[in-house]
Request: fold
Amino acid sequence: MIEILLGTLIGVMLGTLSGIIPGVHANTLAGVLLSLQVTLLSLFGPLALAGAMFAALITHTFVDSIPSTFLGIPDTDTSLAVLPAHALCLEGNGEEAVRIAALGSACAMVISVPLSVLCFFLLPALQPYFDWWIGILLIATMGYMIVTSECPGWALAIFSVSGVLGIFSLYYAFLGWHTLAGSSAILMPLLTGLFGISVLLTASQGALPEQHFRGIRMEDTTVLKCSALGTVAGIAVGWLPGLSTASANGVLASLIGYDKDRRAYILATSAANTANAFIGLAALFALSRMRNGVMVALSELPLPTMSELTVIGVLAACAAYVITIVLSRSASRFNGVDGRLLNRAVIAFIVILCIILTGPFGAGILILATALGLVPHLVNVPRVYCMGAIMVPVMLYSFGIAWI
Reply:
């Protein structure tokens, strides 16, 4: 019990740190802990160390809504969610956006834990069938979104070009530095350019409006429906190979629409993010497949039982919910802040962090992605089609084209 509580405490602290600091992911911290495993195992034991990694991942899925909302900086797992969240912040409803995200993650924890157990026992036998249909599902989803778009030509062009950029970035990712972020570091400049800097460059340049919390303005039925929908989407992409929460965001955008019902979309994507973390643990134990950097790090350790790590994850989720709510109350500190200076400072921070983590190649990808991310704004097309940067490589992977 002591190791469980110790692992939870360390993980919650690390996950809060990674969630608040833009560009730092729980995968990064897991890599650091893994590099120190000889010392840490002797100090804390295998359960506490593994628990700290998993607790940090769960906590990160809660707290990462804060920089997305107030600074407009996306996380690699919630790229599209930054758009409606930051829009609510610019309307003075930043605290509400963070609380909605925390609520979605909390609901996902309640739903995803029993579903993960069911997946662990029932789905491994069906895995070969799932692997083939991933690409078909994504093609059908994006095809529907493109055909029903107001400008199908521009939608197809943006999706295709972003897909090419995604393939190029992943294929030549070895050219980037991998200081602390690991081999997936190239996703940081890719998605930040598409959904972060491009948004900040076109955002309002005046003073940020006063932030007021007037309660969560969502009906209970909408909360339940979107929580369930987001959780199922997160579990689906977390179990199937090659997919990520970013893929779930694209699918949810076709079902909810981040530009039509912002609050519902924030809640659903947050639920998907947290559910993805829990199902990743089940996939590790059931299939020996690693869905993210934290699972890769866990596979290198003496693994405790799945039930022990699940208990740690639940405890971390409860603590992370409280921490996120408390931090959301700092929204009033942004009252009257000069939007132009804030945006410039955030962009400068992103560029510096990108160079540190990925080097000149990552900086080049950031420039290309930012230029492409400006196109939807210029032609009045939703940015969701930029998700081709993730979906096209996944489609190719599902059809056996693994050279990317």
Summary: Residues 2-398 form one domain. The longest helix spans residues 339-379. The chain has one domain: 2-398.
